[in-house]
């Protein structure tokens, strides 16, 4: 009895004894995360209901309805549409290409390490490098692709035509993300136990059946992870629009982030509206990750 | 000889054919960039696919006009500061979550978890005015301080710390090692592969940042390589090969870094690098 009681007090004392040390260890992270992640988010929520002068001063409350007004505005709806279309163009194709490359390279044959290095290589390109590379390639005045494709590619250029600009940016983005997808899917493939393939083989499954009944289900968690990363990257894309199209022509490539921060931003001088769009962007991304994780979870095989 | 005509042999030939064509597709933009960067300005339209009229003049001019030397120094300084700080802050907070018991631990950990859901793009508006109020526009502090700690790093390191056997801490205590001694001499050395991966990941994502430096660096001397490329591309919009030469200069160092640290990269990316 008494020993149990002393043990309990000792445990409680120990619980508190470590507290100051724990606080000291956590302080650096807490200060940074508080000042540059949590505070700005809360502040943006607050700013989002205000209207300000072009200088950003004299902010007055405009009511929380402002969020609804912004959401319904033509500019926001167009930017949201551009962003959604951009992810639909980039994510499925990027994922499929990455899986295809990884499966292709998943065999110990001569020269494979060289192919793997090449397939991973685009992970080394930053958004600025990749975008300017494709800008050079698509530039009608320099002309390699323009000569080959002809038509709009030659004049006014794929990036300056309303019908093709978003596609052109999407191609650059798919290319830039391919290295990342390849690396992660390759690691996923290597973690599939070989005996699963052997038993499928013994059961008489051909190559395609082994791919669709073993590889794809076992890759589930990896594909979910890559899909979530690629989608959230697509929704946060900024640099490729800034460098390739400047949001044009006619706003056909003005994504949500470009609407807030871009050169052609109609709300750049109004910190209230900017904050409102930023908060809505946060909401959209949050909803997206929740949906994606819950939706795919049911069909994903997590192993044992 | 006989195998090359068997179905298995043909399949191998097909695989190589696909591998080679994918290689060509992926390397094509890189090749066109390299060829363009080594051509003089007036010859850029000739043989865009062949290295003719090779010269270093375009690269030299891009280096000078783009102020790329200074930008490379800035990017390196910022990326090194952020990398070291992220590893240190991650180790410290991960240790608290993994080895210490204190009231409110779950709650604080939940707060860390929540910050992972906030996209950086949603906070730039406010962060810019914070940095401006601190007088940190166009400075290393402005470029680095907001990124000195991440919840991602804390999670990653905590995950490793949790796999260390409990007896290890007890044994260390018997040997008279306090928390700091245990952290320095046992926990950190055992977590080294993960710390290496985290370091490379931090370095890369800091080096590749685009929106933040273009937002707070308004003077040429405070550009990183990414915002510097933006300035170069806008100033020299009618000289595409000058811009592409600048791009080559910026791309090269990071290609080399990744070639050297390939293994850490794979580990870092597969560990759940949610924040792209």
Can you describe what's shown?
Chain A is an all-alpha fold and 304 residues long. Chain A has helices spanning 2-17, 19-47, 65-72, 74-104, 112-120, 127-138, 144-149, 165-190, 194-202, 207-236, 239-244, 256-261, 271-297; strands at 50-51, 60-61. In chain A, helix 2 packs across helix 13 (271-297) and helix 10 runs antiparallel to helix 13 (271-297). Chain B has 276 residues and is mostly helical. In chain B, 71% of the residues lie in helices and 0% in strands. Chain B contains 14 helices and no strands. Chain B has helices spanning 7-37, 57-65, 68-99, 105-115, 124-133, 140-144, 151-163, 166-174, 179-190, 192-207, 211-216, 225-235, 240-260, 262-270. In chain B, helix 2 packs across helix 13 (240-260), helix 3 (68-99) packs antiparallel against helix 12 and helix 10 (192-207) crosses helix 14. The longest helix of chain B has 32 residues, at 68-99. Chain B is globular and about 75 Å long. At the A-B interface, helix 1, helix 2, helix 5, helix 6 and helix 8 of A face helix 1, helix 3, helix 4, helix 5 and helix 11 of B.
Keywords:
heterodimer; A: 304 residues; mainly alpha; two-stranded antiparallel ribbon; 13 helices; 2 strands; B: 276 residues; globular
Order of helices and strands of chain B: HHHHHHHHHHHHHH
The major β-sheet of chain B equals: none
**Backbone structural class of chain A:** mainly alpha
User: How many helices of chain A in DSSP terms?
Assistant: 13
Structural class of chain B: mainly alpha
Portion of residues in beta strands of chain B equals under 5%
Oligomer: heterodimer
Measured as a percent range, the helix fraction of chain A is over 70%
């Amino acid at each position: 009895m008494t020993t149990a009681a002393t043990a309990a007090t000792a445990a409680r004392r120990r619980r508190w004894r470590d507290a100051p040390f724990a606080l000291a260890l956590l302080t650096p992270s807490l200060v940074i995360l508080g000042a540059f992640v949590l505070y700005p988010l809360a502040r943006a929520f607050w700013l989002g209901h205000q209207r300000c002068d072009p200088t950003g001063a004299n902010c007055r409350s405009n009511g929380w309805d402002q969020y609804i007004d912004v959401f319904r505005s033509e500019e926001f709806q167009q930017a949201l549409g551009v962003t959604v279309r951009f992810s639909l163009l980039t994510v499925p194709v990027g994922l499929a290409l990455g899986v295809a490359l990884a499966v292709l390279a998943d065999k110990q044959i001569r020269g494979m390490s060289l192919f793997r290095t090449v397939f991973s290589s685009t992970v080394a390109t930053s958004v600025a490098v990749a975008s300017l590379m494709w800008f050079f390639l698509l530039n009608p005045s320099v002309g390699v692709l323009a000569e080959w494709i002809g038509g709009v590619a030659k004049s006014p250029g794929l990036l300056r035509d309303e019908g093709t600009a978003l596609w052109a940016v999407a191609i650059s983005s798919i290319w830039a993300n391919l290295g990342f997808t390849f690396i992660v899917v390759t690691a996923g493939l290597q973690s599939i136990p070989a005996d699963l393939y052997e038993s499928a083989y013994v059961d008489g499954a051909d190559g395609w059946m082994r791919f669709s009944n073993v590889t794809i289900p076992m890759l589930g968690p990896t594909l979910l992870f890559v899909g979530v990363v690629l989608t959230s990257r697509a929704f946060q894309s900024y640099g490729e629009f800034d460098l390739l199209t400047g949001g044009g022509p006619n706003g056909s490539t003005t994504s949500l982030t470009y609407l807030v921060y871009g050169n052609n931003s109609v709300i750049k001088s109004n910190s209230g509206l900017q904050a409102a769009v930023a908060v809505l962007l946060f909401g959209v991304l949050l909803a997206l990750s929740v949906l994606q994780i819950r939706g795919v979870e049911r069909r994903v095989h997590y192993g044992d | 000889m006989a195998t090359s005509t068997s179905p298995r042999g043909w399949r191998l030939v097909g695989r190589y054919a696909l591998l080679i064509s994918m290689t060509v597709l992926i390397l094509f933009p890189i090749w066109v960039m390299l060829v363009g960067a080594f051509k003089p300005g007036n010859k850029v339209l000739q043989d865009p696919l062949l290295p003719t009229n090779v010269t270093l003049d375009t690269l030299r001019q891009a280096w000078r006009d783009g102020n790329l030397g200074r930008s490379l120094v800035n990017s390196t300084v910022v990326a090194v500061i952020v990398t070291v700080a992220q590893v240190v802050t991650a180790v410290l907070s991960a240790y608290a979550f993994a080895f210490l018991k204190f009231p409110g631990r779950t709650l604080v950990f939940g707060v860390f978890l929540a910050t992972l859901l906030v996209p950086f793009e949603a906070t730039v508006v406010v962060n810019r005015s914070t940095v401006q109020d601190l007088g940190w526009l166009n400075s290393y502090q402005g470029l680095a301080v907001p990124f000195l700690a991440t919840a991602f790093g804390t999670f990653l390191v905590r995950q490793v710390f949790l796999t260390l056997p409990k007896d290890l801490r007890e044994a260390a205590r018997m040997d008279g090692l306090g928390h700091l001694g245990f952290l320095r001499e046992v926990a950190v050395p055992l977590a080294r592969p993960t710390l290496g991966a985290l370091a490379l990941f931090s370095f890369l994502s800091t080096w590749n940042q685009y929106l933040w430096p273009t937002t707070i660096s308004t003077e040429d001397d405070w550009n990183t390589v990414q915002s510097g490329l933006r300035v170069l591309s806008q100033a020299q919009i009618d000289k595409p090969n000058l811009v592409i030469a600048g791009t080559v200069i910026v791309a090269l160092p990071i290609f080399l870094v990744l070639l050297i640290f390939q293994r850490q990269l794979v580990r870092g990316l597969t560990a759940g690098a949610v924040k792209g």
